[in-house]
Specification:
This protein is mainly alpha-helical. 62% of the residues lie in helices and 6% in strands. Strands 1-2 form a two-stranded antiparallel sheet. The longest helix is centred in the C-terminal third of the chain and has 22 residues, at 134-155. The radius of gyration is 23 Å and the shape is extended.
Length: 180
């Protein structure tokens, strides 16, 4: 592995530095990639795929970095919202429906979805908090999203107006008992 690493290390460092615009941060990321590659070398099935494998690790590590360090731009205080910028009644009504719909999911799906989507918790933290493996948490969150979407579609008719905004109407049917 060391020979392969030395062959691609400089090119990988240049790629990461170009993507991030920070040479010091690129060095840290490349070091993390080396550690992860060393620890997971058993997962590599062919030495010919080594280069693409370490680039994928680097790409994932850069994504993790951006998730960990989300940057926000502070808006001026005198920037006032006009009536067009305010949330419409439809959005408020829809937002009020989201919590009961999530609560109506089986607990094993509701809790991971609530933590990941409403609280913005990274999936690794969801896994840790619920005592799941990372892949288990990802699966639960994905299944919860599907079940939630099915419930939402069953309860509401969605359309988009000419401005691209969601216009929805609650379905009133004999089976809409779980709807808000």
């Amino acid at each position: 592995m060391l020979e392969q690493w030395l062959l691609h290390q400089d090119q990988l460092r240049r790629y990461v530095a170009k993507q991030l615009g920070d040479a010091d941060l690129a060095d840290d990321i490349v070091q993390d990639v080396y550690i992860k590659a060393s620890n997971n070398l058993h997962q590599l099935t062919s030495s010919t795929k080594f280069k693409s494998w370490i680039y994928r690790i680097a790409q994932n590590r850069m994504i993790d970095h951006y998730r960990e360090h989300q940057y926000f731009i502070e808006l001026p205080e005198d920037l006032a919202a006009n009536d067009d910028d305010l949330i419409s009644d439809e959005y408020e009504q829809l937002a009020l429906c989201l919590y009961p719909l999530i609560d109506s999911l089986p607990k094993k799906y509701a809790e991971p979805l609530r933590l990941a989507e409403l609280k913005g918790m990274p999936q690794q933290e969801v896994a840790n908090q619920l005592g799941l493996s990372l892949s288990g948490a990802k699966s639960r969150i994905q299944r919860a999203r599907i079940k939630f979407r099915e419930q939402l579609v069953a309860c509401c008719d969605f359309e988009f107006n000419q401005n691209g905004q969601i216009v929805y109407e609650r379905k009133i049917t004999p089976t809409s008992e779980g709807c808000c």
